[in-house]
Structures
1.
Amino acid sequence: MTQFTDLGLAEPILRALTDEGYESPTPIQSEVIPAMIEGRDVLGIAQTGTGKTASFVLPILNRIIEENQRPQPKTCRALILSPTRELSAQILENVRGYGRHMRISTTLVVGGVKPGPQIRALSKGVDVLVATPGRLLDLMQSGAIRLNETRTLILDEADQMLDLGFFPAIRKIVGHLPAKRQTALLSATMPKPIRALAHEMLDDPKQVSVAPASRPIERIEQSVVLLPKESKKDLLLELMSDRAVERAIVFSRTKHGADKINRHLVDYGLKSAAIHGNKSQAQRIKALDGFKTGAVKILVATDIAARGIDVDDVSHVVNHDLPNIPEAYVHRIGRTARAGKSGVAVSMCEPGEYEYLRDIERLTGLNIERVFVGDEAKFLAEARNATPAASQKKQSRPSGKKRPFTADGGGRPQGQARGQSGARNAGGNGGGQGGGSKRPRRRARTGSAAPVRA
Ligand code: AMP
């Protein structure tokens, strides 16, 4: 088995890895680190949980040690672009952690906070800059930072950056970097626009594709409760009141929905906080810190806000709404069962979300344990007549040609795109899914090995 000492990393980095307690590199690290140390570009398909962050951070640090130069004012030597503030902050934390035995200057440039401190931090120049594209572009335009000295560029979570509409900003940013540079692009999926971007920006890249190192999905006890929309609130309270819940993330498809769910939980006396894109940076930090320390037991989140959350002891993930993009399901439930632990993921599916459930099962190749609350035949009849609950929302990658990832890292065909579904066009407006019992008939279990039963 490859060891960190085989990869060509400098001693201060190896020491930091020993401090972290890492015994050996993950598969993506074994491939990406030597390639980047050789100076090659990299195109990686990898999700969070594979150790991908260290795979690009460690070679950056190694290069900084080898080159042993101070950065010029208002420049950075390495630039890491990521889609969200949280993920950027987490990457920066990693850079500082792995760089703790070396002299290194780092800073974070993200939106939602005043630019003044960021501009001051950049004025002397930094070794490693972690940024979200929008704010970085603003600071470039105001002259606070120039990228003509940047030798390494990382584009992390490229598919998420595509979804958020960052590609024009990325193209502008990259236009200011020297042509002679090292670039790595990482993405959980590889739809066409990302391949095209990679083609534009990478030079003969080493291509790496890995399944999640720990395959957390296999350790997650998954179930889906099929129920009328109006029963969701009660079921959520039941699930969240269970003593087996130590720390839970509840996912909502919309920001507004996240606020409503959070208010509902707080009104019930549960320690809950919401995190989404309309919250200020201070509110987001407060919610995340509270969640990490345990002061907040339940975090209600949208997909984008949750992307960067790396907290080890999340015992439960609840999908209050099923995501309309099936990959998001895998990302969501992967928030539990981290660091070798097991976890419970319960999803709620109203009739209008049934198509999403089918998409998720096609993508993952799983038959998720189903529990009906109320009348099964009635639910299925309503599902057949329902418009998907979020059909009016944009489909981020409408081509349906995403490279699917699956529980075993393989590439099963994804099946038909949602737009081709017969159910979608069968009428109805997604509302009015009345009927069924108001309350789940029996308590859904959250802590045992058995799936939820109704
Ligand atoms: P990432 O995929 O970068 O989000 O990393 C997922 C988790 O794996 C993080 O909590 C890292 O601290 C951890 N990790 C990264 N590399 C290793 C390694 N070689 N051995 C054990 N854990 C690791």
Note: The pocket of adenosine monophosphate is lined by residues 22, 25-26, 29, 48-54, 310 (CB under 6 Å).
2.
Amino acid sequence: MARIIIVNGPNLNLLGSRETDHYGTVSLDQINSDLTELAQQLGLEVSFFQSNSEGSLIDYIHREASKADGMIINPGALTHYSYALRDAITAVNIPSIEVHLSNIHAREEFRSKSVIAPTVDGQIAGLGSYGYALALSFFADKFNKE
Ligand code: DQA
């Protein structure tokens, strides 16, 4: 069974109460529990990690990527400036999808630039928590075909 790691960066632990106009009212725990259910239906194994610290995210990716078949990552604000996180994703070289709840291309100018985007297979932005589910479905399709 393919294993997908789902990684969330800074401030995403506050989903549900944080800037609900942009990020909705669903908590990260609820999103993860919905994704666990979906993964069961899709025949995938999922593991979750969230951290507010860039180093912890990089350490997790270094440690877990070799045991994973794919990664879904919402890097939060690190999206816009973390070359260290980008290098970590490049280094581990597993299929990866970048997810954003909000449409980063329709907000402040600084959010429209993702330094992560060139190193991932694709980006989903602006579809709320549905973006994670779509990314998971993509992986199910990909690994079922292989
Ligand atoms: C975000 C968008 C980022 O610009 C922001 O810093 C976040 C969340 C999103 O999911 O829309 O923390 O990644």
Note: The mean pLDDT is 97.
3.
Amino acid sequence: MKRPLVAGNWKMNLNRIQAITLAAQVAQQAVHWPTVHVALCPPAVYLDVVGQVLRNSPVALGGQNAHWETAGAFTGELSPTMLVDVGCVFVILGHSERRQHFGETDEMVNRKVKAALESGLRPIVCLGETLQQREEGQTQEVIRAQFAGSLADLSLEEIRQVVLAYEPVWAIGTGKVATPQQAEEVHALLRELLRNKYNEATAQAVTIQYGGSVKPENAAELLSQPNVDGALVGGASLKAQDFLRIVAAAHAVLEEE
Ligand code: PEP
């Protein structure tokens, strides 16, 4: 495994004090596992204050969404340059909750990915099938379509800045985790799609995270899969000890290799 990326997606949770406390706990402890790249993605309103807590720590800051324009009449939206301004390195784009509840399409995600890259952010682009799609045997087709649409027209240099997150929709927040084999199957497909579109070196350079009910108890097995390069963690990132145990598991897997 390359240097793993373990990112916490706090979604629409926590208040200001809780956000500061959690970020401080993660920042203090993360120094013990320098082999792991750690990032926290708080709600937008807390990005600035969490960014201040993470300053001078090895933990990176990420947004949960960004618009494709850099400024203008888009009430309620945030531009990628604003995220950079408060210290973000990453931005989650195309999360299934945004696709499901806010109508984001692959085309919209693609515009956002390009704008984020242009602003110097590293997009964490989420892809994944629903339960119905999996049961109807459409997983590969869905992943291929999301890959082609969300990542259209990216140069070799650009795709190397992108992190892919395979997040089966049926595993997000449900406690139903993909088996390591199910995860590896899709991760290997994503690696193949990268290889076919770019080249072997680029395919190997791109970080592919797994997300969907990752917990301290299942992290090591998932992260041991050859094409799993990290985790995007929702629920378990809201408790410092759980999140840090996942970071520790990534470190342990790397050490064993
Ligand atoms: C997520 O929202 O990206 C996620 C993976 O959530 P959870 O870990 O709670 O399933």
Note: DSSP finds twelve helices and eight strands in the chain.
